[in-house]
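Morning F.,

Quick status update on the modeling queue. The single chain you submitted on Monday has been processed. Sequence for confirmation:
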Amino acid sequence: MGGIMKIEDLQKQLVSKSCVKQDVFGITKEVFGQLNEVVEEITKDLEIHVTPCDSRVELNFKSSGEYESRMTLTGDAVIFHMHTNVFSFPPSHRIFKSPYVQKDDLNAYCGVINIYNFLADSFRFHRLNDSGYLIGRIFVNRDKHFFVEGQNQLGFLFNDFSTLELNKEKLRQVVLTALNYIINFDLYTPPYPQVNQVKLHEIQELSHNLKLQTGKRLGFQFEADQKPMSDF
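Structure tokens below.
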């Protein structure tokens, strides 16, 4: 049974955790800036090689503020979003089995950058009902140690939290892996029974804002999509 809490103990904990969280936020913001530089470089590299082959292929990068950016990759929109909060993990998470975290549990505090995949037309036609997919999320701590949770290779290529440290080359590897998954994640038509009825107002509005819900795999469940993302 613990002793009576003293104000000095509470002050010490508050200062300690607050400082770490501020450090993590600052590092995550720095990493997000580097990520945007990497994505912009990849976009330009692809444009140099792809556009001469087919000028119809749309490739561009746009920053939407301090915490969000968007890459258009032909029919896909890839959203990179930095969460403004700092997170830890449930006690059962495998991160706490790491000697690096066991040495100092404050190392478990991480910022997170999410990678989402939408259809480019969802933004072009303002289809607010359209579905997007979380492709991966990058966790980074105050020492720039990181791991990635995500689909397919993203779920196991970058999971050594004790030794992996983020830099531009590592970020490039993560982005290229995510883009490879997105390019091969094709648009499938939904099952006929799911779309065999439509309301009159949806048809009337369809011509100018295309509000029928769309998503790459809307209505489908695939074995690869059902597998849980790595928890470290």
